[in-house]
Write a structure and sequence with these properties.
The protein has 201 residues and is of the alpha/beta class. It has two domains: 102 residues, Formyl transferase, N-terminal domain (Rossmann fold), CATH 3.40.50; 95 residues, Formyl transferase, N-terminal domain (Rossmann fold), CATH 3.40.50.170. The chain contains six helices and nine strands, in the order E-H-E-H-E-H-E-H-E-H-E-E-H-E-E. Helix 1 packs across helix 6 and helix 5 packs across helix 6. The structure holds glycinamide ribonucleotide. Glycinamide ribonucleotide binds next to helix 1, strand 5 and helix 6. The site of glycinamide ribonucleotide has 15 residues, from helix 1, strand 5 and helix 6.
């Protein structure tokens, strides 16, 4: 049984999507061991608790990045977490944390990376005028929104869209892509060659 630890800062819809995928058996032999939020008012906390998932709030304020990350790692190790999933976790991780969970941290980002890294990716894409955007699930490395890409999904920008309607259509794809990526990573049926994640039959 593989154990997932999910880091959130907000509403937690991707966390819920992963929890549903586990509950429905689309991700098998896994459980969500812990949800950590750095924000006490994050809406995702109640959604995790409703599903019987353990939650911890670890406020990052007043600590260095690494101090905060070490407190997170202590909790994750206590729950024997195998894979860390960032789901709207809006903080950079320290190099220490990334080494501690080397190749075992995934992130979801609401654009087709390497386009539009950083904050408000859907708005960046909309304002740039792209005709297609989407989402990316990738391994986390020491550069922002940069690690090897596991899954992407394409979402067209439609006439009449604004950044909010585009973001909500991207979110639907995020939920599917994240569950697929976690399933693949837990299956270990892939290899990484440089930046390329290659699925194995
Ligand atoms: C999602 O769109 C996620 O891709 C994005 O924040 C949102 C969180 O929503 N993450 C980032 O922009 C990280 N760079 P959620 O809390 O409902 O999952």
């Amino acid at each position: 049984m593989k154990k997932l630890g999910i880091l959130i800062s907000g509403r937690g819809s991707n966390m819920v999507a992963l929890a549903d995928a586990v509950a429905q058996g689309r991700i098998s032999d896994a459980e969500i061991a812990l949800v950590i939020s750095n924000v006490a008012t994050a809406g995702g906390l109640a959604k995790a608790q409703e599903r019987g998932i353990a939650t911890v709030v670890l406020d990052h304020r007043g600590k260095t990045r690494e101090e905060h990350d070490r407190t997170m790692a202590t909790e994750l190790h206590k729950h024997e977490v195998d894979l860390v999933c960032l789901a709207g976790y809006m903080r950079l991780l320290s190099p220490w944390f990334i080494r501690e969970f080397s190749q075992r941290i995934l992130n979801i980002h609401p654009s087709l990376l390497p386009a539009f890294p950083g904050l408000d990716a859907q708005k960046q894409a909309f304002e740039y005028g792209v005709k297609f955007s989407g989402c990316t699930v990738h391994f986390v490395d020491e550069e922002l929104d940069h690690g090897a890409i596991i899954r992407q999904a394409i979402v067209p920008v439609l006439p009449g869209d604004d950044d909010h309607t585009l973001a909500s259509r991207i979110l639907v794809e995020e939920h599917k892509s994240y569950a697929e990526a976690v399933k693949l990573v837990l299956s270990e049926k892939f290899r990484v060659e440089g930046r390329r994640v290659i699925e194995e039959a």
